[in-house]
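Bit of a strange request maybe. I'm writing a small parser for structure token strings and I need a real example to test against, not something I typed by hand. Could someone generate the tokens for this chain?
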Amino acid sequence: MIFEIQGVDFINKGGELMTHAVVQHFADLEPGSRVAAHLRMGTFDQREKTGLYHLSWAYTEKAPQLGHLINACATLIPQQLCHSLKLIRIQEVDAVLDASGFTYSDQQGAAMIEIMAKRLKLRKQEGKKVILLPQAFGPFKNQRVKKAFLEILENSDLVFARDRVSYEYLQNIKDLLSKCPSIKKAPDFTNLVKGKVPEYFKPESSKRKGCIVPNYRMVQRTSSEVKEKYLDFLQICAKYLIEKDIEPFILIHETRTDYDLALKLQAEIGQSLQIIQEASPLYIKGILGNSFLVIGSRFHSLVSTLSQCVPCLGTGWSHKYEMLFDDYDCPECLISPVESEEKVHKTLDRLIEEPDRSNLMNRLHIASQEQKRLTTQMWEEVDQFLQV
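Reply from user aminoacidic:
Good idea to test on real output. This should exercise your parser:
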């Protein structure tokens, strides 16, 4: 089968990791299957390295006439020539896999959701199957957001909510649909992807490393109090790691904005911390898995950490963070940046000192096995629906 993947990119390494997960699954399941992404998603080189094919189809929202002309011309390219160039024509696509992560919510606004509604409606009219892979949904109080998302649901065949709250948001609005898709619950599916440890990151057995993953959205999508306290929170954590003889370093999980936060954190601490900007999400996952502990605000950095049973202190800006830490049976490890310095220190001590650290790691091991089992079950349901 031929799949089109939507809702991911190469800017956020979580999105890229989801792409790896999709490509890996279908490559292992059916060697002849292909996953394609549109030409505006990264470069040819980035798509090739991820195992993606190139979808020879143009969006038409900004320049309808030019877009339709390009699409018409693309259909004239002989199939054999297309495949030799790893190009996929839109009429060859059998199913659309939406791996947006967290797009369909009031917090993201209506504009992108309306665009996605038009795209998925078009795909459905072309006779393709549409699956929303596990992701966070809601809330849907904004009427434009709700209207656009209901159109997406009407044109979907199978929908997976990534957490209990997202599932409840879907249940609350599904009665507004004349035709309701199959709605199920499944965890984030990147937990099955194995990371790789880069040669430059081989921690010495005697040196404990503490990874800090900043997230610019913590000063963009939060209350004024959280915005003001977030950088202080990271500074408190980094300084406490140093006190505990743990070497802090900063890992960039989003290539556009998080680096600026990393530089500000360096300035606040008053010393040069190592900043790692790694292009490969597989190496990023390997680094997280080989850290002594992680302090993170990027959702997929937290998934990668918890699924590898590494103690983790998290903070976040939406319900998806709370649900994630509940799924991994460590809700006490998610705290707000506005908490007192004393509470931050006490929470970090649970990740550092024995026997709390070992007890936490045991809980993470049990929870991780369960989350991976649920992800495997999700893929089985997808495969059965697609009859791959």
